[in-house]
Design goal:
Shape of chain B: elongated
Order of helices and strands of chain A: HHHHHH
Strand content of chain A: under 5%
Number of strands of chain A: 0
Helix content of chain B: over 70%
Distance between the termini of chain B: 46 Å
Largest sheet of chain A: none
Radius of gyration of chain B: 16 Å
Radius of gyration of chain A: 20 Å
Strand content of chain B: under 5%
Largest interface: A-B, 81 and 66 residues
Structural class of chain A: mainly alpha
Order of helices and strands of chain B: HHH
Shape of chain A: globular
Oligomer: heterodimer
Largest sheet of chain B: none
Structural class of chain B: mainly alpha
Number of helices of chain B: 3
Number of strands of chain B: 0
Distance between the termini of chain A: 55 Å
Number of helices of chain A: 6
Helix content of chain A: over 70%
Amino acid sequence: MTIFWICGALMLLASLVATFAGDVRVSILALGLAGLAAGGLHLSLGAELLAVIQWIVSTLITLALLTYSVTYGEFGVQDARKKSQRAIDALFPVLLGGTLTGVIWLGTRHLPIAGVVEVGPPEGIAKVGRALLDGHILSLELLAVLLLLVIVGSGVLSRPDRGES
Amino acid sequence: MILIAAAMAGIGLACVLYRRTLIGLLVGLQLMVLAASMMFMLAGVGREAARVQGQIAGLWVLLFGLVATVAGCAVSLRLFYLKRRASLEDVRALRQ
């Protein structure tokens, strides 16, 4: 369980940096670190398939966001707001985020995992894959169609108009 | 354990509200997706019969988050074509 707590602390720290860093580049890299730590956390709880997919997705999203931030000219640009203004702007989001945390915590207290529990042996990837194909084939197909649609739609949406250079 | 995922969701919401750019919004959204995915997985860990189900639900959330990020990147790219910048204030320009 030591790995779980190390990954959890790393993930929370990286999330805080991603939220409040003045530099977009640091924010995106911290998001990538949070994703990697989340994968480690999944792995420490025996969810191997989820951990591997988490690592792949986080890496791809980090690379994509870095590319887009370079495209938009935001890469390495500091937040233009003054420190005092940033502190004032952060007050309401922090308050609301804290409220959401409290609400989730209160709502999930009854779950058996709310405290520290002994985690059993890891589920085999084959077992998860079999459960996916046996009991969730329709949702798997729907997800595949959705992914295809969003890829095609993104291509259409982001193309230049006719006559636009 | 759940507290970690709950705190992560709170930080993600704070990021969505605090950041003023579309990239920042996508970072916050991704943090919330991480939290939701972890929440499902953790909810299944405590019960032997639900371990696989929790992982599968976490997987769905993760992939739907990927879909949302791809769509967000496409929208921001469209904004950049139209306005030569990608800020949240310009999102309404897409409706015109």
